[in-house]
Amino acid sequence: MFTGSIVAIVTPLHPDGNVDRTSLKKLVDYHVNNGTKGIVAMGTTGESATLDPQEHIEVVKLTVDYVDGRIPVIAGTGSNATKEAIHLTQLVENTGVKGCLTVTPYYNKPTQEGLFQHFKAIADSTDLPQILYNVPGRTGCDMQPETVARLAEIKNIVALKDATGDLSRVSQTRRLVGEQFNLLSGDDATFLDFMLLGGDGVISVTANIAAAQMAKICQAVIDKQIDEARDLNNNLLSLHKMLFIESNPIPVKWACERLGLIADTTLRLPLTPLSNSARAVVENALKLANLI
């Protein structure tokens, strides 16, 4: 159901902190026109942690409206509180989204059984397809392949976004979950090898500013044009790395503004603008990727 290059889209903000609807529409059109296969609204890159629930739902609804049925929209609805994650999931049920991305609970450090019960409770509360999201570098919580396999038996849990960067897990997880369950990389630096090992696509930060290139790489893998995929990805290697030179989405938001995709680089505290020293590094990565 969820394959290819899917973007974890930034949330453009005006200098006063309000959502920049004009820039959001421009971003959506950019992705539709450049081959992106889906949009995650209100993921980590969308600053979900610092937008309140009303703003959260507003951005999801706006994204769905601007997409206008052209590609699927996935709503980030995760929380470290199961009750809150269920509430957010139910709030997006009638917005037109095609699925939800739910992150492992952060800070709480649940057991594997706790993770299973958390995601099961969310899935049981809705008919929307669910994408599990494992990103231990941010959450301090690592969901094991065996737990993913248990959850994959639940009808509407259909995919995993794996941001561990551990490529040894791809074949292990695939063996446990079968071919119908989608495995998506959440780590741009290793996503190509992830796909070559049996993954179905990527939920990408890099795609925010290199949508066409990321889409072409994914399609090349699907078409078994491996040399072409590697050549295309080689141009993005520095970008994959430098977009994390400071905490995501600080660098990618600056890059979006630099390329004219959004009007302003405003972030919500505690995130702060990209430092002057890092700007030169990201600028160079944009040049190496032939984006400027």
What does this structure look like?
By secondary structure, this protein is α/β, with parallel strands linked by helices. The chain has one domain: TIM Barrel, CATH 3.20.20.70. 44% of the residues lie in helices and 13% in strands. It has 13 helices and 8 strands. The longest helix is centred in the N-terminal third of the chain and has 15 residues. The relative contact order is 0.14.
Concise summary:
By secondary structure, the chain is an alpha/beta fold. It is 44% helix and 13% strand. Strands 1-2-3-4-5-6-7-8 form an 8-stranded parallel barrel, surrounded by 5 helices.
- Number of self-contained structural domains: 1
Percent of residues in beta strands = 5-15%
Q: Which strand order spans the largest sheet, edge to edge or round the barrel?
A: 1-2-3-4-5-6-7-8
Category from helices, strands and their pairing: alpha/beta
CATH architectural category: Alpha-Beta Barrel
Termini distance?
34 Å
CATH homology group? Aldolase class I
Number of helices: 13
Q: What would you report as the Rg, rounded to the nearest angstrom?
A: 18 Å
Q: What percentage of residues falls in helices of 4 or more residues?
A: 40-55%
The CATH topology is given as TIM Barrel
Q: Report the CATH C-level class.
A: Alpha Beta
Average pLDDT over all residues: 97
Low-confidence stretches: none
Number of strands: 8
Report the biggest beta sheet as strand number plus sense, adding barrel if it closes: 8 strands, parallel, barrel
Global geometry: globular
The secondary-structure element order is: EHEHEHEHEHHEHEHEHHHHH
